[in-house]
Structures are given as C-alpha cells and as structure tokens.
Amino acid sequence: MIIKNISLRNNTGLFTIHIVDHIISKIEKFKADEIYDDNDVIDGEGNLAMPPYVEPHIHYDTLLTAGEPRWNTSGTLFEGIGIWLDRKKSLTKKDVKERAITAMKWQIAQGVQFVRTHIDITDHKLTALEAILEVKEEMSNYLEIQIVAFPQEGIVSFNGTENLIIKAIELGADAVGGIPHFEFTREDGVESVKKSFEIAIKYDKMLDFHCDEIDDEQSRFIEVVAAEAHKNNYGKFVSASHATAMHSYNNAYTSKLFRLLSISDISIIANPLVNINLQGRFDTFPKRRGITRVKELLDSGINVCFGTDDIFDPFYSLGTGNMLNVLNMGLHVCQMLGYEQVKKSFDLITTNSASALNITKDYGLEVGNTANLIIVSGKDEFDILRRMAPIEYSIRKGKVIAHTIPSVSKIFINGTNEVINFNK
Ligand SMILES: [Zn+2]
Predict the structure, then answer these.
(1) Could you tell me which CATH class the domain 53-356 is placed in?
(2) Omega of the bond leading into 69 within 30 degrees of 0 (cis)
(3) Is CATH 2.30.40.10 the classification given to domain 2-51+365-409?
(4) Sign of torsion, CA 59 60 64 69?
(5) CA 47 – ligand 1 centroid, Å
(6) Among 60, 239, 306, 421, which residue's CB has the most CB atoms within a 10 Å radius?
(7) Which residues of the chain have pLDDT under 50?
(8) Domain residues of the chain, as ranges?
C-alpha cells in the first residue's frame, strides 16, 4: 500500500508513506508526477496523517445504560455509582458484549485503535470481566485493548475484592485498579492503594487508580500513589485517573506535590467531558471546573493525557467515544486554546496516552513500525480541531479498517445553490 500526498505532524511539506507487509517501509517527500508500481494507492489530498488515537480510560461495562433503571438526577458521581450498583444486578454476558461491541465500532470509525478499559470486578460472578475478555479477543485485529480490574466498590470497604482482583488477573486482566477516595476512611484509602501495589508488583501488572475524583481538597491519595510508585521504582507502569481534587488544593501543597509527581514518573489521565459534568455539583457560586491542573502538570514535564470515561451511562449521558470531543472540552476548560497549545494538544490523545499505557514500542509513524495510522480531514491540528474534522481513513496493520466520507451541505441563496463542505 502507498499513501501519497499527506501532511505529517511537526513537519512541513507533503509526504508519501510506503507500506510493505504491514510495516512502514519508507517515508519520503511527495512528488506529484510520480507513478507508483502498486495498485493500492490512497491519495491523502494533503490531509494530516498521524498515529491512531488512543483511548486511555473508558468503562465498557457501564456504557449505553443511561436511564437503566433510572436517570441520574443530581448529576453527581456518587448517585451515578448507586445507579450502576442497581443496574449491575441484571448484567448478563450477552448484554455487556453487545453494548461494548457497539461502542467499539464507533471508536474504530473515529480513529481509535488502542484502548484501556476499567471493568468493575466487585461482582462475585465477574460477568462483565468475562464478557470483555471475550470481546477483547474477538476484536483484537481492530483494537488493542487493556483491561483494568477495577474495584468500583472499594478494596478495603468491600468483602472479597482482593481475591476478585487476583482472579481477574488470572483470567487475563492487564492492570490493577483502585478507588481510594471511595473507601470508608482515609486510612482505608491508603491501605487500598498499598494492596493494589502489592498485587500489581507480585503479578507484574500495570496500575491505574480512580484517584481523588471528588471536589474535596482534603482528598490527597495521589501523593500516596506517587510515593508508592517512587518507592517501588514502578512509576512508568502507574497512572492516576481523574485527580480532580487537585483543582482545589492550595498552591503551596500543589508545588510540593508536583515534585513528587515528577520524580515518581507516573502519568495523569484526565477525563474532561465527564468531570465537567460530575464535579462542582456541591458548589453554589462560584462553581469549580473540576479538572486537574493539566496545563501546569504539562509545564512541569509530567505526562498527562485525556480519556472519554463514559458514553451514555449513569455518569455521563452523551457521547460516541469521539476523542476530538474530549480534546475540545479539555482545551476549553483548561484555557488552552492558544495556537501552539492546540497544535501540541494532539499529544494528549495520541503519544501521551500511548506512553501512559506503556505502548512504547511500535507506536508512531516511523520506518520499521507496524502501519497503524489515521488520516484526518484537515491540513493541520488547529484546522482539525476547529472544524472537529472526521477521520477519513483508519489503517491498521496496512489495511483500511474505517473510511469516512465527509458530509456536504447545500445552501440556497438568491436563487443559486452552493455546496458547503465544513470538512475541507
Ligand atoms: Zn472512570
């Protein structure tokens, strides 16, 4: 396969990518008059090619259940958790698989090829986990999926969670989760983090915590996560998701915290769509934005990326898993709409997420890497975000797995008709 006439991030001019046996064999300057000895040629028409989007945080088990058995009327995380606990009682493998596969198809159409999903394992039957393990296998040619054994109801505060995590790992989970701010007491929260680390290190697994997803400025479990990561020299395998309480920490404490985060080498996964909805619900006015300090963390050299978290479920009632929606919201909420900031921000849904998920080899448009890439309908990152441009092609292992034909509109003014294409 040959992909000609494309732009590349951080480069000027146009390029041609040659793919042989699923591998990127050559990247060269595009020559308009060149005739290729290959009948599989895609004309990129000057659009931007980049590595596939990475979804670092999504719940495949809860998605597409909004309104079942009831809607979240307060809009808070804790009401959402209560609704999910009721919905969880009626889970079947078929139900979980059908919903997950629907969402996966949306992701594939929108340029996602790598995913980390949190699956609630505080269920003695492990129904959702077994379902997602099966789907992971069935979809493996299209999506590379990591499963976090996520103890939604806590580790210390729920009977038997430790054994359930271990069972989940033995069945095939890739990472150990935690939710320290949901445990009954601060001490239980600290103990839960330590237990997660013990299990992950023993079984050689990654860690990803739901960490401080609350507007309580006293919720400081991220320091415990980072300290454990540092002590065990394990930071590159550890992520703290959400970390919204950091929004409310005082600056003196945050300054001290940033040093620890920096030396610990952990990643932060923010979920701006969902947290702008869930947080600030107990505030009157002014209302906090409920997102971690993205710009400041990045400026301090700490790895940050953005995830979707939820699609049409008790925590967030909209969405299709489109990473540009996530990025758009995050950049607005964090006031990062400067030209250079927008251009650089695509790292937050590509390379930074890949790094958080430890996808460090074979990701990126480089000679020798597997030919996994997307071609987005726009000339550069700023252009793409401004118009929320679709993915024209998603290519995995040298094969097209999604092709979107951008839509056009006709307008009728003064007796004429004109075709308007927002996507070009
Ligand atoms: Zn989550």
Answers:
(1) alpha beta
(2) yes
(3) yes
(4) negative
(5) 33
(6) 239
(7) none
(8) 2-51+365-409, 53-356
96 close to 61: Cβ distance less than 8 angstroms: yes
Report CA(277)–ligand 1 centroid distance (Å). 13
| Residue matched to tokens 């430890």 | 358
The two structure tokens encoding residue 317: 């009632």
Which residue in 4, 8, 12, 21 sits closest to 399, CA to CA?
21
pTM attached to this predicted model: 0.97
Q: How far is the CA of 156 from the centre of ligand 1 (A)?
A: 19
Predicted local distance difference test score (pLDDT) of residue 395: 98
**Which tens digits make up the pLDDT trace of 349-400?**
999 999 999 998 899 999 999 999 999 999 999 999 999 999 999 999 999 9
pLDDT at position 421: 83
Q: Which residues are catalytic?
A: 213
> What spacing in Å lies between the alpha carbon of 338 and ligand 1's midpoint?
29
Distance CA 147, CA 59 (A): 10
Q: Which of 251, 193, 199 is nearest to 223 (CA)?
A: 193
Among the listed residues 126, 128, 176, the one whose alpha carbon sits nearest the alpha carbon of residue 150: 176
Residue type, 76: T
CA 46 – ligand 1 centroid, Å:
37
Cα 306 to averaged position of ligand 1 atoms, centre (Å)? 12
* Cα–ligand 1 centroid distance for 363 (angstroms): 24
Question: Over the chain, what HEC string results?
Answer: CEEEEEEECCCCCCEEEEEECCEEEEEEECCCCCCCCCCCEEECCCCEEECCEEEEEECCCCCCCCCCCCCCCCCCHHHHHHHHHHHHCCCCHHHHHHHHHHHHHHHHHCCEEEEEEEEECCCCCCHHHHHHHHHHHHCCCCCEEEEEEECCCCCCCCCCHHHHHHHHHHHCCCEEEECHHHCCCHHHHHHHHHHHHHHHHHHCCEEEEEECCCCCCCCCHHHHHHHHHHHCCCHHHEEEEECHHHHHCCHHHHHHHHHHHHHHCCEEEECHHHHHHHCCCCCCCCCCCCCCCHHHHHHCCCCEEECCECCCECCECCCCCCHHHHHHHHHHHCCCCCHHHHHHHHHHHCHHHHHHCCCCCCCCCCCCCECCEEEECCCCHHHHHHHCCCEEEEEECCEEEEECCCCCEEEEECCEEEEECCCC
